[in-house]
Amino acid sequence: MHCPACSHKFGFLRSLLIMNPFRIKCPSCGTILTMGRFGAIFLTVGFSFGVALAEVGLYMKDRHSWTTSDIVLWFLVAFPTVIGAYEWLGWRYAKLQEEHEREGSRRKTE
């Protein structure tokens, strides 16, 4: 993942700090960037993964198969593993675009 304006590369650890995929400021040149439609899909699927992981722990607790310590261990191992791998895939395949490009293409289609 890199800035299209100045080619500044976003490292994996830096990408973990991106909370809003629709407004990312390049630390090098200050350009406002967005992930566009990919960001919306990525955010939705990531949220779904998080909910699914939580549901596994709650389901196992309701069935009395896991103790509280088992659930804590599940959250300490499963969340970083699955969400970390998911974040890595997003970082690997995300394409950033400048904010004004996205707005300009929206105006042309209206």
Which key phrases capture this entry?
three-stranded antiparallel beta sheet; 3 strands; elongated; 110 residues; mainly alpha
Q: Write down how many β-strands occur, each being a DSSP E stretch of 2 or more residues.
A: 3
Give helix % range: 55-70%
Name the poorly predicted regions: 102-110
Q: What class, by secondary structure content?
A: mainly alpha
Describe the structure.
It is a single chain. It is built from 4 helices and 3 strands, in the order αββααβα. It has 110 residues and is mainly alpha-helical. The chain has one domain (12-26, 35-109). Strands 1-2-3 form a 3-stranded antiparallel β-sheet. The longest helix is centred in the middle third of the chain and has 27 residues, at 36-62. The chain is elongated and about 55 Å long. The relative contact order is 0.18. Residues 102-110 have low confidence and may be disordered.
Give the arrangement of secondary structure elements:
Blueprint: H1 12-15, E1 24-25, E2 32-34, H2 36-62, H3 68-93, E3 97-98, H4 99-109
Antiparallel strand pairs: 1-2, 2-3
Compose a concise summary of this entry.
The protein has helices at 12-15, 36-62, 68-93, 99-109, and strands spanning 24-25, 32-34, 97-98.
